[in-house]
Records
---
Amino acid sequence: MRVNDIEIPEGLYYSKEHEWVKLEGKEAVVGITDYAQKQLHDIVYVEAPKIGTDLKQFQAMGTVESVKSTSEIFTPVTGKVAKVNGELAESPELLNQDPYGKGWIARITLKDFDNDVKKLLTAQQYADYVKNLEK
Amino acid sequence: MASQLKKTHLHEFHKQEARMTAFAGFDMPVWYKGIIPEHLAVRNSVGIFDITHMGRAIVTGAKSEAFLNYVTTNDVAALAPMSAHYSNMCNEQGGIKDDFVLSRLEQEKFFLVYNAANRKKDYEWLVQNAGSYGAKVEDVSDNIAMFAVQGPKAQETMQKIARADLSKVERFKCSWTKLAGEEGFVSRTGYTGEDGFEVFVWNTPVSNPTKALKVWNAILEAGKEYGIEPCGLGARDTLRLEAGLCLYGNDIDEETTPLEAGLSFVVKLKKDSFIGKDALVKQKAEGIKRKRVGLVMLERSIPRQGNEVFKDNQKIGAVTSGTFSPILEKGVAVAYVSVENAVEGNIVEIKIRDKMAKAQIAKFPLYDTTKYGYMRQK
């Protein structure tokens, strides 16, 4: 679905800090939303978490630097970092170009998604949330 | 909230095309296509900025030269009609009240362009000091639209809509000219380090923006073949930082003197008395303790305002502006550091989010001046 020019794919979960979660078996792929990349714009550096790091939901796991500002990325789920997107080091613009695809940030081995999901939004809920921010 | 912000003539255009932000009481564009593409358009070809938010005043009177010589630091007597110079106004302690460009329109008529954030302060300061010289200060900010057309293709772009021969308007010279048929004024000045013009459309209040819109659209059309981009405040900031130009409120303020800021070329201490002279003479004799420098990151990190600068684990200063340089593709900064450390090539550390990152002190402009900027090899 879309809110203005912001894409919000269905089937993903979202955080109020504008991260998305895609479930793939026991892992979750996470990244930042189209809304977040449009806000930041001109992303020039991405600092991803280290593989093996144990993260608690909503803990800072990295940073995104745009020309104008530095923003923390908060993990939307609890778990262990299984993999990070190595391409972002050389091509941070992937976050701007394809936030839900090639711009993924990390894969996290889930610990207790049933609990995490209580604090996440569905696409529809996130769309309503973004609609309010855009007002 | 947004309704309380002032708007420029181009507000509808900006709202359609750009992401907006509040700046100095105005609703202004931050970027249209993006800071990096806009920045590169200016360095490689041409870009246009709406900078109507800036303050503008006209000073007239038989003693206007003497008045301006007293209230500003540069030598106004040396300024010929239709010439401009960069200058500072200081307080009695030598702190910078503002930096601005002063143009001499006629022997007894001057035009000042100063920072948007200082519109009220500057006007009041000028009026307060003008009395004993019988000079008249008129705030003409709201009656003039102001654009900057910057980049190596600026002259070719502007010539298509200007009646005056712009090849004869040298750097820091000005000219009256029809612009797309409208009454206009251009100065060969800017805030990007590139060749270019600041363009003024006269007698066009925001309530009647027709003339301003006409000129803006004509410039966009004229620059089309060069890939002109409308540019927002984001690119304006990255461009000025690469060029080493100060941002008032960040790099200079009333607690900073022109000598510390590396602006002594606009402070003429041989002039008769001017506001701040005694303090600056004293500071020059005693020697400055800190100095404004450029920094280029040696690591993949972006310094930001307020980050502390260290040498051998000792704090030596702080960052006043920091960003990513689209030309160097590195983090860059303006910082004040202790004078003994302010040496080109010196490697220092900047504390960025609790990590120490190496940076090197570099001279401004930060880019290769044979390839970029107004002095580039053609």
Note: Chain A touches chain B through ten residues (CB under 8 Å).
---
Amino acid sequence: MSSLFVPLALGCLVALLSALVVVLVRRPIYAAISLLVHSLSLAALFALLSEPMVAVGQLIIYSGAIVVLFLFVVTLLPTGGRELSPNGSRIAMAGVASGSLLVAFAAVLGVGAPPAKPPVDLGPYAVGLALFGPNVLIAFELTAPLLLVAMIGAVVIWRRHEPSSRVAHKPPAVVEPRHLVMHR
Amino acid sequence: MISENLVLGTSTLLFAIGAAGVLLHRHPVAMLMAVEIMLNAANLLIVLGARVNGNADAESAALIVLVLAAAEAVIGLALALALFRRKPLPDIDEAVEIRG
């Protein structure tokens, strides 16, 4: 366990620092890149906690798909993602809310983690059995329609807010009078 | 034991950082990034529980949370971009109603 402590501490430190950068930086492009570092450090933490399947899923789904989606959206933003600065009440509200959340969670988690049972094999075989087992099967099957609905919903939201003037009030094409040129 | 407590504390701090980010920002995309941090914190706790209890069900739940985060990001970013079409410099407080 002691051999794992230093890499775990390093991963936790990187995850915390990159999360702070995501929250505090003002430009969304830097926040998206920091989110990439954050998800990579979490994948490293999952791998250190001997959960290879979740680590690979975090790499593929999170770093590969979600963060890249964020990067695409940030490049689509007008005005480079400029943002109104937070006023004092907003800063106070954020401080109070996160502080009280921190205190509440610290009180709940203050008892500490229960002693770990001897590690069992949580490789792909065990995860596959659990995914199709009786406990998780319905949730696992429902992720398919969830993704489908999310995809269709994104297209519908995008099309609904499309400016209709582009289609409806198309200016009539100006027909230039053609000049007949007689070639000899 | 010390390592588990370290991961517990990290997860708690990450969730608080994410909550502060959601309340601090007025930019919908930045808010969504903070929500992703909160989801990651919850996932870290689930993975820690799976390891401590040696439970493969919890590990598959962590995978399902990943898929959920993907769906949430897709819908949230589509809404954010729809908001940007109305106004180039958006304030999330002004989006008081969602109409077609």
Note: The two ends of chain B are 53 Å apart (CA to CA).
